[in-house]
Amino acid sequence: MQPPDKHPKIIVQDQQPFNAESPLEPLRRSFVTPTELFYVRNHGTIPEVDPASYRLTVSGMVERQLELSLEEIRDEFPKETVTATVQCAGNRRQGLMEAQQIPGETPWGAGALGNARWSGVPLREVLQAAGVGEEARHVAFAGLDEIEEGWSPNYGSSVPLHKGMSPEVLLAYEMNGEPLRSEHGFPLRAVVPGYIGARSVKWLSDITLQYVPSDNYFQAHEYKLFPPYVTEETVDYTEGFALGEISLNAVTCSPSDGEELSAGPVPFRGYAIAGGGRTIERVDLSTDEGQSWIGADLKEGEGHPWAWRFWEATMELDRGKHQIVVRALDSAADTQPADAGGIWNFKGYANNAWHSVEVDAR
Amino acid sequence: MQPPDKHPKIIVQDQQPFNAESPLEPLRRSFVTPTELFYVRNHGTIPEVDPASYRLTVSGMVERQLELSLEEIRDEFPKETVTATVQCAGNRRQGLMEAQQIPGETPWGAGALGNARWSGVPLREVLQAAGVGEEARHVAFAGLDEIEEGWSPNYGSSVPLHKGMSPEVLLAYEMNGEPLRSEHGFPLRAVVPGYIGARSVKWLSDITLQYVPSDNYFQAHEYKLFPPYVTEETVDYTEGFALGEISLNAVTCSPSDGEELSAGPVPFRGYAIAGGGRTIERVDLSTDEGQSWIGADLKEGEGHPWAWRFWEATMELDRGKHQIVVRALDSAADTQPADAGGIWNFKGYANNAWHSVEVDAR
B-side interface with A, Cβ within 8 Å? Predict the structure, then answer.
């Protein structure tokens, strides 16, 4: 397995499986993330799939089983494009690790996400062609990669049928107007906007309609959220809840944490993201740990319900060190918790505590 | 206007317009709130409507204008029942007032909500009968009450069309298996599950499909959320965001704040609620201001996506005073902010800071 062709500044977390996140300042420059800058999260190999012999199987609780070639998927179904942010469930794990240690997990910063224009066939078109059985409640996906961790030979997961039938969920064969690259799932992947990236299965080979969620290791064991009072020693993996929609978040991308800069007006830029089709209604910044807040301007992202929202604010900074925290408010008036400690969980998922950068104004 | 026939323990906040909330301990006794215990929020009169001459008008961006009698609504459309919690946007305003004053608004405790079985015709059935115009984006409701506050003669509001077309939104003529009582909107009201109560317009007389939200005073001016840094002196009412989906919340109903009780194991009971069709995945309690948490058992509410969720936990309390806080986690792994100060807003809406009770164990 070769590490894929990526941006020179991409931050490689692991070589095998290949895992890399985006540096924040370049990430914030473009509302649609360039493919070479887009984060990569794998659990096994990056398979090289021959598009000519590739087949997608749709089976389980369907009226008729389908076996579709890539050509049939492209030519016999409508093509839709959705601009959607895909985010790793472990994005910002580093912040949880600062509150309490999390051994053996990738220490993701805040760049394990990206926003792309995904093109392909809406999943529901394919499900309708197969005929959704009355008892079906979940859509299970399985990929062509090879996995060593856990009990499943390939990566897999599932989403509830109601999500699978939503128009924004795609079987994508293009990313940013080009065929998918290997590390992003060539020739076909699921894209489940608003859900953790783990549900957007790459190198997709099998779709199964079933009554229960997938029994793949990465649905039934990993990507579950446990309370702070459960540890690796006390965990019962049949409990906890399987993550689906992503949580509300906001991050400062520039200046970066620890940056030295000139006193005076300083532009702050970042992203905010709301899960499950909600919208970002407000982003606030504070220089006094949340005692008082200043509103940021909302920028690119309006009209894209499945994408992040960019924001910008100019802060007047005196000489000295300043800690600047950011938080977002979504369309249900929900906001974020202040501290990572209270949402710490031993697998390190879903950190949406206020994001903080410290800068030194000279 | 007579105050309506309510439960003897109901807490009357205002006589005219009549506003009353439910006492928490009785409220927690029944998953479906008895009608006489159900909170009442009015902005004007409680009209006495003659059901024989009553008509509902459906107009605006429709293919054909409708004028429906109560008989036609009941006999010519399907009847559906939805168990849904309706909650005032000002529920728990008292907690915000403790952080910073909010003059001139009703000081609601945590009982300005209730859960009922609502029966009526799905709004979308009526909209489809009228034919939804291509340009329509919002569904505006107007009521038959008389209002003195603001510029509108009657109460009104609107919801986005996609919500109006969702199957859970009803034009209800029954509450808990009986015709609506006057104070709850007889003969017909909107019920918009997952949204603030202000959108569930009572004594409904007009539905208008339109491109923009309602220009009724209570949509365009009231029920807007402003940041903590906006005050009554600096507000521009054309800004702020019009509240829709309710925010995630959790409340301890018993024991009550200030209660004296016996040291030892103490049962704590309360409700939790997630907005916009999300589900409650966890409720946690803390006796040390959130340094550590204990999980509560989730009780009644499973399988009712538009209803609150009851919870219960037994806490072992030594002699002395204890402050117990509660928070919930929803299906997007979102949770609640710790402090009311950071979400304070000068109108006092959407308080979902951790709820706290202090008890004295003897």
Answer: 225, 227-229, 241, 243-248, 275-276, 278, 281-282, 284, 290-295, 329, 331-339, 341-343, 349-350, 352
